[in-house]
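Exercise 3.2. Students should predict the tertiary structure of the chain below and write it as structure tokens, then compare their answer with the key that follows.

Predict this chain's 3D structure.
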Amino acid sequence: MSELAAPWLADKAALLKPSSYAPLRASWKNYVEPAWGPRAIAGIRHSEVQTWVAGIGMSPTVVARAYGILAGILDVAEKDRRILANPARGVRLPRKVTKRDRRYLTHDELWAVAAASGRPALVLTLGYCGLRWGELVALRVRDVNFLRRRIAVTRNVVEVHGEFHPGTPKTHESRQVPVPAAVLQQLAAAVDGKAPEALIFDDGHGGYMRRTRASAGSRSWWVSALATAGVEPLVLHDLRHTAASLAVSAGANVKAIQRMLGHASAAMTLDVYADLFDDDLEALTTRLDEAIGTRVVAASLPRDA
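Answer key:
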């Protein structure tokens, strides 16, 4: 099977970003190759694949990735007519665990964490503009338009095995993100004295900043800031969710939030933040009731005979 895996992996390496390809390659090495690498394609049976999937013993995400590699390679074998049918198709996969309830910070909590962090511009940019971490650390001074109050998100950087790989944003499309005036004030202080091509948030030596740890027991600036502000443990990505929540509460519609966050579609935004828009619908009902008013209702109702 290994002879088919090599070109399959090469195709994936050409199509995927390094951050997406790295776990794929690791999954092949750790789970797929040891079990199936030496095997002849024609000898693989559906029941064997089901037993292998059940025996991986890792999280549903890890199992699904390993299974996807095997099934993808066997799809190629089927199309090449090396086998009549893909024996991996129809295999039952473990169900994913229900996601934890998402935590959104309030305005007061966000500002308290920003003040305690020693990096207010960084925290507030994440919490109000909804940038991904890789987009944030790739920002250069020239990307901030202080007159139009916009940030141009044109790049993303990912760290894979300790190395940084600059590239395009996740959807491969640039976007303009609005910035509140109070956040612009913090950004102005952060870029003061820096050249237009300099990174806004660097590692202290002009290089890319590594993502800070958020695990329990960590002494990172992020964990310390949360503790000082009296906010329960969160990961930095929760600030992106906070940005969506605060935008919805300010009256932003789904298309505006999609553009701000850089989602591929408004449908994706609704899928990710359905809970936020449920609350928005309740508020809409209240506003409609207020707009209609009792006099409008009274005037439209037929009088009793």
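Discussion points: The longest strand covers residues 156-160. The chain has two domains: 2-79, 107-252.
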